[in-house]
Design a protein that fits this description.
Helix content: 55-70%
Largest sheet: none
Number of strands: 0
Distance between the termini: 49 Å
Strand content: under 5%
Structural class: mainly alpha
Order of helices and strands: HHHHHHHHHH
Number of helices: 10
Length: 204
């Protein structure tokens, strides 16, 4: 199903800026105009990412939804693996779920790169999260990577349910960034993504 009228009437979202529309307003609009199937998927995306939600998301029929949950699982697992190594904890016991990245982390826990070098090119951006000591800064960095992922996945996708989902997820993140000014937010967003993509040298 497509949503030309709905999406055309929404204000543009800009990374690092305050959201120009409230989440309450988006909830109202989407509840009124989305199909029942898409409302169910949006409800899944709205839910906190705990184990039951993660399992449901990874099994969703919608490809975008599955990939979003997979992206978050992989990012969190790689972050956890790096933190466990840094503090001497057992990596294998802390990895959640299944999938190629999860299994690679479990079977290559002793490798410097966790066996990810050949598996995924952007793994350094996830590993870099563990080097951010301030928890608020780390969360902002994770949101920066999430925002970039959403923009990349929907740049050629117009008026689809996937664009609606991405818009909502981006709006949620912008609300979390609302304590920053527009200029500061844009600068921090660009710097976080650029710096994290360079990767870091891990302590081993």
């Amino acid at each position: 199903m497509t949503y030309e009228y709905l999406l055309a009437g929404l204000p543009e979202l800009k990374a690092g800026a305050d959201s120009p529309v409230s989440l309450e307003k988006l909830d109202e609009l989407f509840d009124e105009q989305l199909s029942e199937a898409d409302k169910s998927l949006l409800a899944l995306l709205r839910a906190p990412i705990d184990e039951p939600t993660l399992e449901a998301g990874l099994k969703a029929k919608n490809r975008f939804v599955r990939e979003w949950f997979r992206f978050n699982q992989d990012m969190n697992n790689i972050l956890v693996a790096a933190i466990c190594r840094k503090h001497g904890f057992d990596v294998k016991q802390q990895i959640v779920g299944d999938g190629e990245v999860a299994e690679t982390l479990r079977t290559h826990a002793s490798h410097k790169d966790f066996g990810l070098n050949e598996l995924m090119g952007d793994y350094q951006a996830f590993l870099a999260l563990a080097q951010i000591e301030n928890l608020m800064d780390r969360e902002k960095s994770m949101d920066a990577l999430r925002f970039e992922w959403l923009m990349e996945r929907t740049q050629f996708d117009f008026f689809s349910s996937e664009m609606v989902f991405a818009y909502y997820l981006e709006a949620v993140m912008l609300h979390r960034w609302s304590i920053l000014t527009v200029e500061e937010g844009e600068k921090v967003f660009r710097e976080l993504v650029a710096d994290m993509k360079k990767g870091v040298k891990l302590d081993v």
